[in-house]
Amino acid sequence: MLGKLRTLASDALIYGLTTILVRFMTFLLTPLYSNYLSKTEIGVFTDLFSILGFITIVYCVGLDTSFFRFFVRDNVNRTKEAFSYSFWGIFVVSGFFTLMVFVFADSVALYFPEINSRFGSSVIRIAAFIPFCDVLTFIPYAVLRMNRRAKVFAGLKIMTVAVNVIATYLLIAVFKMGIMGIVVAGIISSGVAFLAFIPIIMQWLTPLRGGKSLLREMLVFGLPTVPSALSLMILQVADRPIMKAIGGPEMLGMYSVNYRLALPMLLLVAVFEFAWRPFYLSNHEERDSKILFSRILTYFTLCCALVFLIISFGMEYVVRMPFVGGRFINPAFWSGMGIIPIVMGGYFFNGIFTNLAAGFHITKRTKFLPIATVIAAASNVLLNIILIPKYGIYGGAWATFGAYFLSMIVLYYYSRNIYPVPYEWKRIFLIIIVTLGIFWGVNALPDMIWTKILAIIVLVAFFRFTGFFNEEEIAAIKRLVGRKPK
To answer: How far lies 337's CA from each of 35, 438, 478, in Å?
Structure first.
């Protein structure tokens, strides 16, 4: 048992670190975009790639999800059949729609007049193959995960993103290809990933022997997951096409660059999510597990408060740092930095959602999770339509903030009956109130770096000397701080 837990922890660590590294590498493209592309160009490709995200979900028709369900570790032949039906099913669906986009690219390009006027339909034809190549790697990636080949999985993920970053730099910074360069870099990295997977694909593919019942079972299981996946995608990126339609690509470009600067909070939530799931699945049967889970949410909130203040106060100095092509972020985008704290607030509520979701997985009543996601996605669309015309990029940020907040509220409503946990709401609200008080107070003072550093120290000191931590927690902190390195 202990050995299996170690394996789980090791794999979770590798997947978690890989996700963090991949997102950070992708984040490094943001300063390149801001220094070598106009706001309009950034807005256009942001809109294009958000649409490609939706297309990817449709292409999979749920077969990527159902493969996990039909993977049988002790029956290689059965698993190969599931792999083959999943792979060829995705290949046929994605191939058909890719061909349709390629044939009707001239009509599709009319939705992107900025691209059409400069490149015609060539960008659309190239971009059509990006989701096609991407989805063909989903089942091979799933095989690696199910066979616990975490290091190979991580290596291929990192290689793909590294190829994309290098290709993007060369094509937009050296060869000045603009949007075309980003799309070409995308197809290069997706193509390289697919080629790297060919040996694994050939290893697991098996001739289809007319077992259509298996395909039918996989579709019956997988297709119902598509609406939930689409809802999650709507929650994450619906603001992009709506903002472009209402405010134009230039507004979306400003929004996109500054939205990405909230990455540190996103990474904190991602780290928590990867560590959290194996933790609660391994500890939920302990006698005091609910008290432990409650305390973890309090500590998570405190960590988010520190990150919130550090990024809110420090990002204006980061964007001024030298970088390839000029500053880390082009000064033309600095006026939109006010959305960063709002976006971080949304990520914080998403982290609470992740914490609350534990009870639904423990009790195996996950049907309530899509309900919260669908409600949040619908509210995100509605709020964007209402707020963007009046408040611009701030309307988009507040819409996302509100949608994540609503998803948390809906999940908490159901969790009270399904898996009640005595959360320390008084301590959590105290953290939030003190953090916001410091944030607003510092912003009302003259802009000095020492004031901001002092404010962060004040936050830590406040919770240390006002009785916020109990004696057990203070002793644990002292042991942690006083621990000598080995």
So the answer is: 16, 18, 37
Which of 260, 240, 268 shows the shortest CA–CA distance to 252?
Answer: 240
- For residue 182, give the H/E element and its range: helix 178-204
Indicate the residue type of 345: G
Q: How far is the C-alpha of 458 from the C-alpha of 454, rounded, in Å? A: 6
Dist. CA 107–CA 120, nearest whole Å: 10
Residues 116 and 108: their CA atoms lie apart, in Å, by 9
Over the stretch 94-124, which tens digit does the pLDDT of each residue have? 999 999 999 999 999 999 999 999 999 999 9
pLDDT tens by residue, 353-386: 999 999 998 998 888 999 999 999 999 999 999 9
| Residue with token string 């540190």 | 264
Q: Please give the model's pTM, rounded to 2 decimal places.
A: 0.92
Q: DSSP states of 40-84 as a string?
A: HHHHHHHHHHHHHHHHHHHHHTTHHHHHHHH--TT-HHHHHHHHH
The contacts of residue 66 (CB under 8 Å, 6+ apart) are 86, 218, 219, 221, 222, 225
Strand partners for 326: 323
Dihedral sign for Cα atoms in the order 466, 467, 468, 469 = positive
Burial of 361 (0-12, 13-18, 19+ CB in 10 A): middle
Helix (H) or strand (E) holding 322: strand 322-323
The answer to whether residues 321 and 327 touch, using CB atoms and an 8 Å cutoff, is: yes
Nearest C-alpha neighbor of 442 from the set 332, 303, 352, 341: 341
Q: Is the dihedral of CA 373, 378, 383, 385 positive or negative?
A: positive
